[in-house]
């Protein structure tokens, strides 16, 4: 139920005073005019609800849609229930409609015949392929070191963190470089093969030009990079993830996000050697020896060590 407003109480008091002492005295007493009092006396039917303000919304407008336009819009909407606002407007314009797009939108909204929006198709992720043993597949990626972490002689330079993660054990190998190129990638691969205690069957990377020329804008897209040549020499399969889909390299991407929180937010580097030394200490102490939930609260070093013992 609508509440009784102060204006309604004022008008009721005004009418009662006018009935008792006359309209002229009521106009003086309530500081209004006689026409105002007569108007509300005519509207008053004994209930206070009759003294409520009525809607001032016009019943018609000189520029409102004509019956012919209404029929044209209704017929067009019935034939094109999913057409968007602009598409529907263009179709109407081709049949003599002359209203603006905002005018058509207001009419459609008022009539409740806006375009039906079909539900978005639900994304069904592909089942993740779990690895069975260390070295079955290793993810490799490059991280740009934040410039705010560089100070002293290193200020203004660009450093890069190469990262490799074994998908089975989550064991990680990192190295610092001054450039990210196919040569740096091949050097990192050689060091990774020496550091990892088991043979590596597959290496998974994104489509960056430090790994592949698959999407190079210049010639030679079919030629292997130095990184790919080194992979072939060692008999390691190279798997490229889907373009613009970094979640397919999710383990190494997540580790880089953790690096921002645990390492780069609190450390500063004065040179490439200083950066490499701090990065190695952090990776050994705070990553490879840190218990992880996916590993049953064991560290990557423990998982890899236990597997080697079982051989």
Automatic annotation (TrEMBL):
<dbReference type="InterPro" id="IPR012337">
    <property type="entry name" value="RNaseH-like_sf"/>
</dbReference>
<dbReference type="Pfam" id="PF00665">
    <property type="entry name" value="rve"/>
</dbReference>
<dbReference type="InterPro" id="IPR001584">
    <property type="entry name" value="Integrase_cat-core"/>
</dbReference>
<protein>
    <submittedName>
        <fullName>IS481 family transposase</fullName>
    </submittedName>
</protein>
<dbReference type="InterPro" id="IPR009057">
    <property type="entry name" value="Homeodomain-like_sf"/>
</dbReference>
<dbReference type="InterPro" id="IPR036397">
    <property type="entry name" value="RNaseH_sf"/>
</dbReference>
<feature type="compositionally biased region" description="Basic residues">
    <location>
        <begin position="54"/>
        <end position="63"/>
    </location>
</feature>
<dbReference type="InterPro" id="IPR055247">
    <property type="entry name" value="InsJ-like_HTH"/>
</dbReference>
<feature type="domain" description="Integrase catalytic">
    <location>
        <begin position="130"/>
        <end position="308"/>
    </location>
</feature>
<dbReference type="Pfam" id="PF13518">
    <property type="entry name" value="HTH_28"/>
</dbReference>
<feature type="region of interest" description="Disordered">
    <location>
        <begin position="51"/>
        <end position="71"/>
    </location>
</feature>
């Amino acid at each position: 139920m609508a509440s009784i407003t102060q204006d309604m109480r004022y008008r009721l008091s005004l009418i009662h005073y006018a009935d008792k002492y006359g309209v002229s005295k009521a106009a003086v007493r309530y500081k209004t005019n006689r026409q105002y009092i007569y108007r509300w006396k005519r509207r008053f039917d004994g209930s206070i609800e009759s003294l409520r303000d009525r809607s001032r919304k016009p019943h018609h407008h000189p520029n409102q849609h004509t019956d012919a336009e209404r029929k044209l819009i209704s017929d067009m909407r019935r034939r094109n229930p999913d057409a968007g606002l602009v598409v529907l407007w263009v179709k109407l314009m081709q049949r003599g409609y002359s209203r603006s797009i905002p005018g058509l939108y207001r009419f459609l909204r008022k009539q409740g015949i806006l375009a039906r929006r079909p539900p978005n198709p639900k994304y069904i992720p592909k089942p993740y392929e779990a690895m069975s043993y260390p070295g079955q597949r290793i993810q490799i990626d490059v991280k740009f070191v934040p410039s705010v972490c560089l100070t002293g002689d290193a200020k203004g330079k660009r450093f890069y963190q190469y990262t490799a993660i074994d998908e089975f054990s989550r064991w990680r190998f990192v190295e610092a470089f001054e450039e990210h190129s196919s040569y740096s990638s091949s050097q990192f691969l050689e060091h990774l093969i020496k550091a990892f205690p088991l043979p590596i069957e597959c290496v998974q990377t994104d489509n960056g030009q430090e790994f592949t020329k698959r999407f190079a804008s210049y010639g030679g897209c079919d030629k292997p990079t130095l990184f790919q040549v080194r992979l072939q020499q060692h008999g390691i399969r190279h798997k490229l993830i889907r373009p613009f889909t970094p979640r397919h390299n999710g383990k190494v991407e997540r580790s880089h996000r953790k690096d921002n929180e645990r390492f780069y937010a609190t450390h500063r580097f004065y040179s490439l050697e200083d950066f490499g030394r701090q990065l190695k200490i952090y990776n050994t102490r705070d990553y490879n020896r840190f218990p992880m939930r996916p590993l049953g609260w064991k560290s990557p070093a423990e998982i890899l060590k236990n597997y080697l013992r079982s051989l």
